[in-house]
């Protein structure tokens, strides 16, 4: 399906006052090519395999299947070097959910917020902790961060 | 799981006298890297996503899931250039099945036979049409052929 997502920097930690749940995410890439990323993810107790196509504006083709966590662990071992480790906080704001990712390891210091929309022109509430939009900046793709971590910028 | 497979050239077409079934296969690669190939395949009426690790001798880690044919068609559009088109003949020889692939398109003229084994030292019957072994020659990997087709050799 086509996913429509917008991504922002985060100005401060006040989102932590309002999050509804959080999950540890560890993910690696079998392909980090921006036109065909293949991602292996462990989120909490679940495994996922996700394939994404090229971005066009705020939209990107995305295919995802849940897989057994044991299979995800095996596939993570095949991945390119540069595993992403982060905690994702779900924060409900108005009628939307922001997913706020706090990165660790080589990307420590980076915090990003993402919101999924139904249409490209859908409006949404912007909380005070939301910073600059970086949707179209490939530097903030997790696939890019896995190769060029935030600490090396 | 770990797959143990051996691959051979094919000397002549006499395998066609004995095949039990055949399927058209069209496949592309989201990653053609030999340490982490990600293959999208349509075989007959079914779709498959397959991930393979690095070869070690005759063995290679392989993960495969059946997916909807419509999803496979979408994912094929994301693949690297160089789609593989072939007909696979299943040929029973003794207690084993040889999968004989007759290639078309840019790989026309190439015919390869593969046999799956339970152990690395398992013995198996070699029919008269079976040629030179090429198991460890990466040139005959389908992922390599997708980039460097047989007609260009």
TrEMBL record, chains A, B:
It holds the Pfam family CYTH. InterPro entries: CYTH-like_dom_sf, CYTH_domain, NeuTTM/CthTTM-like. CDD domains: CYTH-like_CthTTM-like_1. The active site is at 29 (proton acceptor). Residues 1-147 form the CYTH domain. This is CYTH domain-containing protein. It comes from Flavobacterium haoranii.
């Amino acid at each position: 399906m086509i996913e429509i997502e917008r991504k922002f920097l985060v100005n401060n930690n006040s989102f932590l006052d309002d999050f509804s749940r959080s999950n540890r995410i560890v993910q690696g890439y079998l392909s980090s090519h921006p036109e065909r990323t293949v991602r292996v993810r462990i989120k909490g107790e679940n495994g996922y395999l996700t394939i994404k196509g090229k971005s066009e504006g705020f939209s990107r083709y995305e295919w995802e299947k849940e897989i057994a966590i044991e299979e995800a662990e095996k596939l993570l071992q095949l991945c390119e070097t540069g595993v992403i480790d982060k905690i994702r906080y779900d924060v409900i704001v108005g009628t939307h959910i922001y997913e706020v990712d706090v990165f660790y390891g080589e990307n420590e210091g980076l915090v990003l917020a993402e919101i999924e929309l139904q249409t490209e022109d859908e409006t949404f509430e912007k909380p005070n902790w939301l910073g600059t939009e970086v949707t179209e900046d490939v530097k903030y793709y997790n696939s890019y961060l896995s190769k060029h971590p935030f600490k090396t910028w």
